[in-house]
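Reviewer comment 2.1 asked that we show a complete input and output for one of the modelled complexes. We chose the zinc ion case, as it is the one discussed in the main text.
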Amino acid sequence: MKRTGIIAIILCAVLLCGCNNEQNSVDSGYVDVSDFVSEYENELENKDETDSNMFPLAEYDDKAVAVMSLNFSANGKYLYCMRDTNIRINGESGEVRMLCSKAGCAHKSDSPDCSAHKRMSGGLSAPEGYYYTLGNQLCLYDGETHKVLFENNFCTDFDKEMNEDNPYTLGEMVYCGGKLYVFGLSHYFIYDISNGTTSDPAVFIDRDIIMSVDTNGENIYYCTQLSNELYVYNIATKESKKICGNSPALDYKNGGLYYVQYENGVPMLYMADEDGNSPKKIIEDCYVNFCITDDCIYYQNYADPAGGAFMCKIDGSDPQKIEFPQKVITENDVDIVSKKDDKDLLYIISSSAADKAYIICSGSKTTGSDVTPVEIIFALDKGSAECRLIAETER
Ligand SMILES: [Zn+2]
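Response of the prediction step:
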């Protein structure tokens, strides 16, 4: 199966799944958040930057929606991994913390009301907590409670065709300029964080579903899942312009639209201006898990025999290979060796709000003759190709 095919299936599952989850009930689509805003302001005053806060003073994760970063959010000095178990990893020390503050909770998968096991994928981290969608709801986990901010009651005929059981499902979101752009199957809302209001729904995509999306506040950039095309949608004029076909992933950063376009089965990374004009090919063989930071681009290259990871400048120049170190710990005279697996698919995660970039992949831990599979997390200072193995977690 082509790699693009695999991705399409994964993302489709994510979008079409958000449907059978439990529903909290709210009486109307709009929720009064004034209490919450003042509560949040009080909280901010009392917050410090120590590890005791689950979401310490930080910024908003500005990541694009892309299949390889759906369940991760990098912010401040932490990486948030929101999957079967929701955890936070300290990028310096590697300390792993469960995202649950319930007193006496064992944080097991069957622990009642354990937030570490609540589905919170597809969201993003922010100073006030973790935004995520659940069914047709936009929610915020502030480290203690889960608040429903908005409930979607809008859908198109196409949404009904695609997801008969719950056409109101919300999927992913992106952050820009104090607002969350929250995407349903073929429409979106703008949620204003400062006052908790939500815009009218706008349909921006014609009989298709998004695969990757980002915004600069004026345009919405999106790749479609069924037709595999890249568009720029102007929010003011409500018009979409097709940029190219065979494009499964994009990222907008600092005036540049970065996107992957397949040519004869090989993925190329292009950079265009914010209207999608003047595209320039900047990396050959750049898989969809590329990550644009403010300083550089991290990407995986399958033309490399080891499927290695690279870092290059923001214009694609000066590529440097990233070497993945092993970690050896000696306990009771036994060496415990953690290392990355070969040819593994890499999750490469960062954001403007994070002080590091992270590479997450499968690996193994060897204790004497005993080998256990683990997931390995590497951290890189942004702009650097030097990486450190900071944590291993069970897989
Ligand atoms: Zn728990």
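The radius of gyration is 21 Å. We note this here for comparison with the apo prediction described in Section 3.2.
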